[in-house]
Amino acid sequence: MTLPDLLILRHGETEWNRAGRLQGKLDSPLTEEGLRQADRQAEILAALDLTGWSALSSPQGRALATAARALPGRSVLQDARLREIGLGDWTGRLRSDLAAEHPHLFQGEGLGWYDHAPGGEGLLALESRLRAFLGALNGPVVIVTHGITSRVLRCLAQGLPVKAFETVGGGQGVVYRVSGGQSELLR
Known about the structure:
Blueprint: E1 6-10, H1 15-19, H2 32-46, E2 54-57, H3 61-70, E3 77-78, H4 95-101, H5 123-135, E4 141-145, H6 147-157, E5 175-179, E6 182-186
Parallel strand pairs: 1-4, 2-3, 2-4
Antiparallel strand pairs: 1-5, 5-6
Helix pairs in contact: 2-3, 5-6
InterPro entries: His_Pase_superF_clade-1, His_PPase_superfam, PG/BPGM_mutase_AS, PGM_Phosphatase
GO molecular function, one term: phosphatase activity
Protein name: Histidine phosphatase family protein
């Protein structure tokens, strides 16, 4: 799949991120640090020529709040395909509690446990909706989304298997440029 250039932003830190609580489809407000991260994203984007670029965001509050600060004065359309992976019964739970209940899933720093949430969306469904999203793009776009969604999106845009999502890097308030199948973290 040939893709246009992408700038992929993860929302800034939220209160639940700081507490270690899984958000999934739910939301919590950006922290002061999250607001600073969104402002830093705005600085990074301001240094780029975004003439002809569109802007799309997850409809979830934390992404929209980040988009408002990172893309001031720009029209940002919402796309539900950019929402975070659904976590089913684990939505709103503390990661530490889940790790205590399911230690075999949370050994080490891996993220594969996202695929085991009871009633959750799962990585295959996330991959399917993100392939549809990428297939519909017709020009360069700034994307404001979430942690796991960003990782899987970048895997697909780079032609990597989705299972590589654990290795492509993450972080709060980051900006990745994906062009010609290569990803670069902008600082």
